[in-house]
Write a structure and sequence with these properties.
Helix content: 55-70%
Distance between the termini: 78 Å
Oligomer: single chain
Largest sheet: none
Strand content: under 5%
Number of strands: 0
Order of helices and strands: HHHHHHHHHH
Low-confidence stretches: none
């Protein structure tokens, strides 16, 4: 247990990023995540908004509880009493520590925008924080406290994202897109300020650290101005693209349902005529 929680530092060999152990471990979390989202989401689809919201409340409590437990343990096992400054919720994935509670406990447009934000970024964060988390799986053994809590919190984000759309809680109203942009840009500004003051690499705005952001970092030659701007611009493009694809699919489904309904109406009319 001392080894699992990392007291005194991990002694086991690090299996490595994209090792078989890494892929198998995170795949187990993803299977559980998707299965629970589909089962609970379908079960709650016809329920009232209040009943649907209870699942969000539990998701908010669990994700923040696990993250708080991680921060406390990191402070206990570390020699630096200010170690918690490097575990602030200022990564793209950790924004869900705030937006999921907002989605669960707020009302009106803030709730709608928070639900949409979790829907848009939750599943992306789940993939980035598990399969593509080169910063974690290159630094710790696969089965370790750091990787396990990270996998749990990212899986909760992914679960919540899928649950929101399967249960029909998303709004994806175009008028709420500015709020979604505002949430993201606010965190980007806070992350960049923290990176300069600490220094650190929140939101990966300073460098890639073994993640896919390294591709952008290398393309711009590590330019300290162009690189963070490019990362933020990609976030904004992703939001716009996600909204575009969502509405495209929604319109296609609506057209298909209308076509089926018209066909059924025509058949009824023919029977009446006969």
């Amino acid at each position: 247990m001392r080894e699992f929680f990392g007291f005194g530092g991990y002694q086991r060999e690090i299996e490595g990023y994209f090792s078989l152990e890494h892929i198998l471990y995170v795949t187990c979390f993803m299977i559980v995540m998707v299965t629970l989202a589909v089962i609970i989401g379908r079960r709650m689809r016809g329920r009232s908004d209040k009943e649907k919201n209870r699942v969000l409340i539990w998701a908010a409590i669990l994700i923040d509880s696990f993250e708080l437990f991680k921060i406390v343990l990191v402070c206990i096992r570390g020699a630096d009493p200010l170690g918690w400054l490097y575990d602030l919720p200022l990564f793209l994935c950790s924004i869900q520590l705030i937006t999921i509670p907002l989605a669960a406990f707020s009302k009106g447009r803030v709730k709608e925008a928070s639900l949409d934000f979790v829907f848009i970024f939750g599943i992306l964060g789940a993939v980035l924080g598990t399969y593509l988390a080169g910063n974690n799986y290159s630094s710790f053994p696969v089965v370790s406290f750091d990787n396990t809590v990270s996998a749990i919190t990212h899986s909760i984000s992914g679960f919540t994202s899928l649950y929101i759309v399967i249960s029909g809680m998303e709004s994806m109203k175009k008028k709420n897109i500015p709020i979604t942009y505002a949430i993201l840009l606010s965190f980007c500004v806070m992350a960049y300020v923290a990176n300069v003051l600490l220094p650190y690499n929140y939101m990966f705005l300073m460098r890639g650290d073994g993640t896919p952001y390294d591709i952008i970092y290398n393309l711009v030659g590590g330019n300290p101005v162009i690189y963070p701007i490019s990362v933020v611009v990609l976030f904004l493009i992703y939001i716009a693209a996600f909204n575009g694809v969502y509405h495209l699919f929604k319109n296609k489904i609506a057209e298909r349902k209308a076509k089926i309904s018209n066909m059924a109406t025509d058949e009824v009319k023919e029977e009446v005529t006969v």
